[in-house]
Amino acid sequence: MQDLTKLTDQELGDFFNSFDTILADIDGVLRNVLQPIPGSVEAIKSLKKMGKQFTFVTNNTTKSVDTLYQELKAAGFDVEKSEIVTPLAPMVSHLQKQNLPRKTVFVIGMPVIKQALKDAGFTLAPNGPDRFKDAIEVFSSLAIEDDGSVEAVICDVDMNLNYLNLQKAATFLERPEVIFIAGATDVKFPVGKGNRILIGPGIFIQILERMTKRTAIKIAKPSPFLNEFIVEKYGIKDRSRVLFIGDSIPEDMGFAGNCGYKKLLVLSGLAKKSSLENWEFEEKCKPEFYVDSLKEVHELALRLFGK
């Protein structure tokens, strides 16, 4: 693991010439959900000026690709809508390939997921009520209802997740024929100035897996499932010529390690310098290089190539 800023000009030139395609996370790399990270706008412009091809790969399914595109453009990023990938499209595609007779799905997730499934012709099984009488008899009757119609359960980010819907998902998953799909498995999300941390959906997916003794089909990073979609959509031929830029060691660097990509870790999101100094992750997650943020990548590009 090398600090990119410590490389000689010759080594920097070798680094920039070692890849043609960049896959980059969004949250923690370009922005921290609520605001852009200083220098990231300029870094994307610099790298694109070098002729690097970009795809922005996020586990964020709280917003549609169209909304993410509009937000990034408004923040000044040089990005096209076609360059943004979330787990949503491969998730829907996978379900469509299962040829479910009733096409009925129970979703723990945000409205954008539910709308995408409805647009694809799926029926959404109803979620439980937000409030009900605080009695175990009432909870139990709502939680164990299962008429056998649900054919798949999806678990992803859900800002309104409650105990009842988590239990309903577990009830449906007791039937082994019910497909279990997980979106983002992040256990932490960086948010806003100071990188405040939110609980990620990975915690709740782990609860369902332990409760049901089932293993979810994981669509998002670090699963290579998402990469199959990316490779097909963008025609990636030589993985050794691809650089992945991310802020999470398990999700981003793990994804790159699973897929055979070069790795650049930025310390502007989840990962901190102490994580590198006290390594506790799998060897495949080790990045070849790291920087504090994309601002340093921009400054290094200027140093080497000028304006």
From TrEMBL:
GO terms for cellular component: cytoplasm. Mg(2+) binds at residues 25, 27, 247. Substrate binds at residue 221. The active site is at 25 (nucleophile), 27 (proton donor). Its cofactor is Mg(2+). Keywords: Hydrolase, Magnesium, Metal-binding. GO terms for molecular function: metal ion binding; phosphatase activity. Divalent metal ions. Mg(2+) is the most effective. Belongs to the HAD-like hydrolase superfamily. This is 4-nitrophenylphosphatase.
